[in-house]
Fold this sequence. Notes:
Layout: H1 6-32, H2 41-48, H3 51-61, H4 81-97, E1 101-113, E2 116-129, E3 140-146, H5 167-184, E4 192-198, H6 206-218, E5 222-228, E6 240-244, H7 249-264, E7 270-274, H8 285-289, E8 294-298, H9 326-344, E9 351-356, E10 366-375, E11 381-390, E12 394-399, E13 404-407, E14 412-420, E15 425-434, E16 443-451, E17 463-469, H10 473-493
Parallel strand pairs: 3-4, 3-5, 5-8, 6-7
Antiparallel strand pairs: 1-2, 2-4, 6-8, 9-10, 10-15, 11-14, 11-16, 12-15, 13-14, 16-17
This protein binds zinc ion (ZN).
Residues 146, 169-170, 201, 229-230, 282 line the site of zinc ion (ZN).
Amino acid sequence: xxxxxxxxxxxxxxxxxxxxxxxxxxxxxxxxxxxxxxxxxxxxxxxxxxxxxxxxxxxxxxxxxxxxxxxxxxxxxxxxxxxxxxxxxxxxxxxxxxxxxxxxxxxxxxxxxxxxxxxxxxxxxxxxxxxxxxxxxxxxxxxxxxxxxxxxxxxxxxxxxxxxxxxxxxxxxxxxxxxxxxxxxxxxxxxxxxxxxxxxxxxxxxxxxxxxxxxxxxxxxxxxxxxxxxxxxxxxxxxxxxxxxxxxxxxxxxxxxxxxxxxxxxxxxxxxxxxxxxxxxxxxxxxxxxxxxxxxxxxxxxxxxxxxxxxxxxxxxxxxxxxxxxxxxxxxxxxxxxxxxxxxxxxxxxxxxxxxxxxxxxxxxxxxxxxxxxxxxxxxxxxxxxxxxxxxxxxxxxxxxxxxxxxxxxxxxxxxxxxxxxxxxxxxxxxxxxxxxxxxxxxxxxxxxxxxxxxxxxxxxxxxxxxxxxxxxxxxxxxxxxxxxxxxxxxxxxxxxxx
Length: 499
Ligand SMILES: [Zn+2]
């Protein structure tokens, strides 16, 4: 018995060794393309986010005094006028404190209380930071959250006397909106940003519907809505971020801007863009109905797979700050606010680069990469430098730039491109060879980064990386030569007999 087990054990050891070496190579590659972005305004905004500010807002908005929280507010259930007014005042005050102009929109919704129709006045609180672009080019970017709450899933709950703390749903979203105002106030943005706190969401999206209908009627040039609803619950160790975009290509583009921000700024989140199965059960959907591009930013719900980490305290009196995952909450807010900042386009130089290469390479082959770069911003970029870091197995040969090469040590090449004025764009071709002896590698990669003096507006488009698989000739041709052989066998022995 024993000797017969040696062979499988040896095989297992071999597989383990291969996997280990593969992992080492992967690790080495990660280090080689270390995530260092040039300083940027969007990066600054993301780094300046304050988890303490976020938590303080949630604390002030939720109402469950028995737990000793810092709030003095009443319940934010929609038909509780006093509690709602207190919350609206808090939001208004916070926005004004950050130098944002505040307006309110009021409207009446009728509901039945004690067998009587009662009209309740609901209030949207809207902060505005005016953009600096000429009016004809100036769009409106909205970051929104509903500030009302409910605890209707708690058995026997009575809204008049019992709390509806709504910490995750949706004090977290309101906190992100208020933090966005703090981080963006005083900055020069091309587009106008509106910080919107909507009322009456839980009774049928009343506040956002009112806003979207008014916006359509007045011809407001809304270019993006980032609606934040429930961004604080995470319990399964997988920090998923659902982005509900629906099927409108403009909304899908917004979702991709968010995904790109998460990746470029190295946020600890797994974004998932939802199109076909996107929900319409939050404040983004009235904007869809009025033809505006909009997305919903939300934690891992039970609406789509592959995981379901939905908040079990949702719409109960237990939805309180102590259930919030604070690290995750901050990352979600960073993702939303970073994206809003990018969409609003800070004024200044905005360098970008895109690198492209072949779909696959072979050992010993000469390959070409194209580098396209430019300045998409509103101010010149001075002393622009482009660097291309080639992975193991890839060796620089020449390029068509005509630009001064500052150095090419090891696997890094650096070009001095001079000053780029707004609207400038250009590109060139880099020729490199794949080492014939790079036997242990399964792919090669190049990582290009562009940077100039001072602060770029958005670093997410300053880095472009291509990874190209190495194909061995025998792997391509051997299966092709086996196929006819199999056909031949099948003809000779009859179908099925060779299996
Ligand atoms: Zn909600």
